[in-house]
Amino acid sequence: MTVTNNAVIGMALKYIEANPQERDLLRSLIVLALHGPPIVTPTTTPAHVTCRVALVSVDGRVLHTRAGGRSWKLPGGHVDGADQSLLGAALRHLAAQAEVEANGLIPASVLPVDVTPHPVDAVPTRDEPEHVHYEATFLLRAADGALEQPTSRQSSRRWVSIADVRGKLGDKLRSEAARSRV
Fold first, then answer.
1. I want to staple 42 with a disulfide (CB 3.0 to 4.6 A). Which of 9, 62, 78, 91 is the partner?
2. Which region among 56-70, 72-86, 122-136 has the lowest average model confidence (pLDDT)?
3. What is the pLDDT of residues 50-73, one digit of tens each?
4. Which residues contact 64 (CB under 8 A, 6 or more apart)?
5. Residue 134 CB partners (closer than 8 Å, separation 6+)
């Protein structure tokens, strides 16, 4: 069973309840999910949901990956038809991109710590129009802070200080880190 529009709407409403100042950012997502085709399908336009993981180590570092010479970023990507949940999609991407399995990881919540719309440019060679990714970021903590080195040459990962994560997500991660120390 794939992730349904109703599941996305439920996540968005609970997220807004916890982050009322972001209500306007998610209004369009809710309307599209109420009235449109499957909102998690990568071909759905004008927008669809993607997932990623902010994996934070015990010493306050955040995992980034790089694939194919692209820039460093949090592991994540599109939801696939076999994914049972948005968190499950994020964990699948973490395993594929960073060779990190869910065992030994502690999710902060089943709800994302952040949901942010990101405009995506059109790719005419793939007949892909300009659209928006509603990126749901799930916060996970590494239980022991030490993960095994990846076994694949294609896996490229690095840890960056939580202080270096910019924007709204960085603010939320630092706030969560401060709360967890209390």
1. 78
2. 56-70
3. 999 999 988 889 999 987 667 899
4. 72, 73, 74, 75, 157, 158, 159, 160
5. 26, 29, 39, 47, 48, 49, 50, 115, 116, 117
